[in-house]
Design goal:
295 residues; alpha/beta; three-stranded mixed beta sheet
């Protein structure tokens, strides 16, 4: 039995779908407040759901009972739950899960973290602090572990969610738009997680994950312009303005969001050669993604 935590999220649900397709028995952790439509879709896939909450450690023992592998994608970054926060969910909640899995005799823990390029003079953002803390707990747990650190998801950073409004040919560009980023597809990250369950090369390893080619945001814009046959209207947001925003807030989530945008401005080229050697997966390109979402 494989327990997927974060199962109602975009990445977690895709991992569930791919595991079920492979014939794996999958259990999805859902909260009482989870979106009922997303829970229903999991059940329709063949996922067994169990109620629990990372912030309520007493609920995790039953979720982990009889489980051989835990895959955790949960993060407050994409959550709309009012009780979520980076310290409570991304850090302490995940630490609760690691302890519960260890106590239940879970043999394998696959943790979805993320990569970060820290600019000189900047402290790590709260999300990075939480992620690295949990990574260390997973490594020290005694369970066989795989830690996956993907670069920026195409489906997030090249979407209207963050101002890359391709349906209306508009885009916010952080910095000058020339720094290169190893955009990676959410589906490819899901496949890395699925393959990690049985791949001996993934045991007790940390992998940086990036797409097949690093592109600048301006190069991504050109790809989308070609796909839709229309020029984009661009709004440039200077890195200095983002830095001011980062220093002005004390909220961990807002500070992390601004840090991620600063990272976009600085660039995020990832050396994923170790992952490619271990997994050998074909990876989608930004052009593939643009064709898919623009029709």
């Amino acid at each position: 039995m494989i327990l997927v935590v974060g199962s109602t999220g975009n990445l977690g649900s895709e991992i569930c779908r791919r595991l079920v397709t492979r014939g794996q028995a999958v259990r999805g952790l859902v909260r009482p407040t989870s979106n009922p439509e997303r829970v229903a879709r999991l059940i329709a896939l063949g996922v067994t759901t169990v109620r629990g909450d990372l912030q309520q450690s007493e609920t995790l023992a039953a979720a982990c009972r009889g489980v051989t592998t835990v895959i955790s994608t949960a993060t407050t970054v994409a959550s709309r739950q009012p009780t979520d926060s980076i310290p409570a969910t991304d850090q302490q909640g995940q630490l609760n899960l690691v302890q519960a899995a260890r106590d239940a005799g879970v043999r394998q823990f696959i943790y979805l973290s993320y990569t970060e390029k820290i600019e000189p003079g900047l402290d790590p953002c709260p999300l990075t602090v939480a992620k690295r803390c949990v990574e260390q707990a997973v490594i020290d747990s005694g369970m066989t572990y795989t830690i996956l650190r993907p670069a920026d998801f195409m489906e997030v950073w090249l979407s209207p969610i963050v101002g890359f409004d391709y349906p209306n040919a508009k885009a916010n560009i952080y910095g000058d738009g020339r720094a290169r980023i190893s955009y990676i597809s959410l589906g490819d990250v899901a496949q890395y997680a699925v393959e990690s369950v049985e791949n001996p090369a993934a045991r007790n390893a940390v992998f940086e994950l990036g797409g097949p080619a690093a592109l600048s945001p301006l190069e991504a814009v050109r790809i989308f312009e070609k796909a839709i046959g229309k020029r984009f209207e661009l709004q440039f947001i200077p890195a200095a303005a983002l830095q001011v925003q980062r220093e002005a807030t004390t909220d961990p989530l807002q500070k992390s969001f601004t840090s991620l945008r600063l990272q976009q401005a600085a660039g995020m080229e990832v050396d994923s050669s170790a992952a490619q050697q271990a997994f050998g997966l074909p990876l989608g390109t930004v052009a593939d993604y643009a064709r898919r979402v623009t029709g």
